[in-house]
Amino acid sequence: MDDRTQITAHLTDADRIDRLRLIRSDNVGPRTFNSLISHFGNARAALERLPDLARRGGATRSGRICSEEQARAELAASNKIGVSLVAPGEAAYPPRLAALDDAPPLLGVRGNLDAMMRPMIAIVGSRNASGAGLKFASQLAHNLGEAGFVVISGLARGVDQAAHRATIESGTVAVLAGGHDRIYPAEHEDLLAALLPRGGAISEMPLGHVPRARDFPRRNRLISGASLGVVVVEAAHRSGSLITARMAAEQGREVFAVPGSPLDPRAAGTNDLIKQGAALVTEASDVINAVQPIMERPTVLEAREGDDEPLDFDTDPGERERILALLGPSPVSLDDLIRMSGLSPTLVRTVLLELELAGRLERHGGGLVSMI
Predict the structure, then answer these.
(1) Reported pTM
(2) Is the pLDDT of residue 301 over 80?
(3) 168 near 190, Cβ under 8 Å?
(4) Which of 80, 124, 130, 273 could disulfide-link to 241, CB 3.0 to 4.6 Å?
């Protein structure tokens, strides 16, 4: 059972090096990467303009630009441990993840690469799960695996590891918050090794990157983005699993929740999800029946945010100041900036891009931005 998609890209070695250099340079995230590629045509041309654009955004010093030597060294080190760096649209890049507007421009993929192209269901939940929660997560994952799905999760303690262990034979994918050589938690290195022959692991982080607290929400968007839907087994209020569920909803993925006792705080988040409209799950068929119609539609790699909007670097200082005056520490949406400034979307996008490259802008979920 494969996800319905087509292989649409194949990078040359030179293109892969240039793309790696661009995404590893300071203040370049996936959306900024896409805007730069769209405007300048290729990564090499964008790299040449980075210092100038950062200065226009108010940078007081030049940001680090990844050198060709550094990029070649990362590629060689990745290949040495069996990690392939693939672009959206290439074989082994999960097709539903590739369709996101903030898909990693290069994704580190290891294991059975065929597993990456099969339909995935995410199972997430509490790290401090109950015995009943762990048992249900294992049973649900096993049944989904038998039905032909790859179970994807975050390799964390609790529900994540239960779902992975139950699908080692049928295929499971671990999404890493750090580099492929910095497994967290370290106690799950054996689990990762066991799941690689039939499943795999993915990460957007460079080798050597030790995961920090802010990296886990970034990882969570990959878990939900690669899947047809996300099942939350147990989650307390303000749980990271609820962040994954929110991201899934924003990405247009199905959200499922397993009900729990009102007396157990580990079920408070999942019960709230059901109140808010998440599909209630008591068995695998609840998930399978809901995603079956989605699987019958091919995954299309559409133009990403910014791809159909040109940039305009010929900005008037007064217009730039108008946009800067509207920005502050509180997140604001792009649509609101356009409306309140009275300026064109092209101009607003350009100024935001320059601010981001200068390290002065932070992007949030839901298309919100704020000044740093």
Answers:
(1) 0.91
(2) no
(3) no
(4) 124
